[in-house]
Amino acid sequence: MFAAFMTHTWIAGTLVAMVAGVVGFFVVIRRAAFAAHVLPLGAFPGAAAANLLGVNELFGLVAFAGLGVLGIGQLERWGRREVATALWLAASLALGTLFLSMTRQYSQQVYALLFGEVLGISEAAVVSVAILSVLAIAAMAILFRPLLLDSLSPELCQAAGASSRRMEIAFLGVLAISTAMVLPVVGALMVFSLMVGPASCARALTDEPRSAVLLSVGLSLATVWSAIALSYLSNWPVGFFVGTLGALSYTAGRIYRRFAHPSAALPGRETP
Amino acid sequence: MKSATEVLSIDHLTVALSGRTVLRDVSFSLSPGEFCALIGTNGSGKTTLLKTILGLVRPQSGTIRIATAADRDAASRIGYVPQKISLDPSLPLRARDVVSLGMDGGRLGLPLPSRERRERVDRMLDAVGATGFAERRVGDLSGGQQQRVLIAHALIRRPSLLLLDEPLANLDIRSVAEIVVLLRRLATEYDTAILLSAHDMNPLLPVMDRIVYLANCCAAAGKPEEVVRTEVLSRLYGYHIDVVRVHGRVVVIAAGAPDEIHAAIAKDPIHTAEIP
């Protein structure tokens, strides 16, 4: 499991987990779980298009995730956010279907994009993942206070002189970058669970925002490391373990909150 | 009676939202430490007026001047408590964190935790009587407790002007009294002018220095005894109303209303048919 050919896997997995932990915290408190689900699925045709054109998949992923942010942002001006997000999902899946029908790729590679592939991560891929990780985490550190204030109340954010709308777009931008880098490792279907599971558990365990971010990163690392190890040992897809562990940590958080703060656990007031 | 010491002076302010005039020719001013009630029914333009002062709504005409005392930071001249915001109980944010965000929540980058910062937050929490629940999750607090935290959030930068949008709505009677007394004390202690919107003026009668009464897109402003009078409010509404005082409380009665209902019933075909 710690053989030389696994080195890239461990490095990429660790970086991906750290980014998902930090960005996931804001996904959860901003109730952006749906966007975090749709952006990776919407970025998926980007990888297919990149394959068609013979360029690096990551370019396709970043481009389509970026388009997703602009698309959802624009559609949001005309209607409700969920509708805008769902519309984007439908349109991009349609496009993905078309691109897939045009490629002559092995279905193995498509499968890897959807469910994650930990083996065979190249050194170039590790370098690009590292660069994107630094960018994403730096952006979250810079935006930390206004984003937190905006998540508490957009009006308070505006009164403090920070544009609520700009915060939303900046956040979706970071979400797009993170999505593009997390996707090849854990798969388009599982990006969402890695972002939401550990962060929602952390949110239930502590009342202090910075500890929640650190805890979220810790849980995310534990999830990814165990998923890689279990996947290596069992030969089952890494996405299966990421998804299962994500759901487990979310459930654990809910149970803890129910027993530690019974009065506060009002059903229906918590976000998924 | 305009002077350089006024914190806020509004002159002939007219505001329209998507083509509809919401405020017409509104003028009034506030001095440091003054407590002013902004009274009006739902939809009378209270929130619009506060947002215009904040700079979030652009007026059609007129001027708003906000003076800053020499010892205060110009950027933090206005504190704001928005209309009933529901604080999400799943947010991992303590009362203390919300107050701390009031200091520099709009700024980029991570602040270094410092002793000075912590002490400043502690003092502010103490000033609003929130020390007892400072470490609790803000979404789990009661409405009155949340209001105290939001007031501390708005006041920590020592603004010269504090705007509060319906802070007494949805509070029980005891919490209303506590918040009103707290605000009166803070206005004096911090020498901050307070402009507080409400639809009922009664809880504010004992503490307010001035009143701005909004109706019909217009405002009547001045001392309470000058404004809350039958002839002044009748002129503002454009029809006869009565200001009645009962056991120290003020009731504004639109006397024309029953007549207008009778007139409307008479015109309504169904009702006319049923009336023998």
Topology:
The complex is a heterodimer of chains A (about 270) and B (about 280).
Chain A: H1 7-29, H2 33-53, H3 57-78, H4 81-102, H5 107-115, H6 123-152, H7 154-159, H8 164-186, H9 191-205, H10 209-234, H11 238-260
Chain B: E1 8-17, E2 20-30, E3 35-39, H1 46-54, E4 61-66, E5 78-81, H2 95-104, H3 115-127, H4 143-155, E6 161-165, H5 173-190, E7 193-198, E8 210-215, E9 218-222, H6 224-227, H7 230-237, E10 242-246, E11 249-253, H8 257-267, H9 269-274
Parallel strand pairs in B: 3-7, 3-8, 5-6, 6-7
Antiparallel strand pairs in B: 1-2, 1-4, 8-9, 10-11
Helix pairs in contact in B: 2-4, 4-5
Detailed description of the structure:
The complex is a heterodimer of chains A (about 270) and B (about 280). Chain A has about 270 residues and is an all-alpha fold. Chain A has one domain: ABC transporter involved in vitamin B12 uptake, BtuC. Chain A has helices at about 5-30, 35-55, 55-80, 80-100, 105-115, 125-150, 155-160, 165-185, 190-205, 210-235, 240-260. The two termini of chain A are about 35 Å apart. With about 280 residues, chain B is of the alpha/beta class. Chain B contains nine helices and eleven strands. In chain B, strand 1 (about 10-15) and strand 2 (about 20-30) form a beta hairpin. The model of chain B has no long low-confidence stretch (mean pLDDT about 90). Classes of the chains: A mainly alpha (about 270), B alpha/beta (about 280). The interface between A and B is medium-sized, with 36 and 34 residues.
Summarize the structure.
Chain A is an all-alpha fold and 272 residues long.
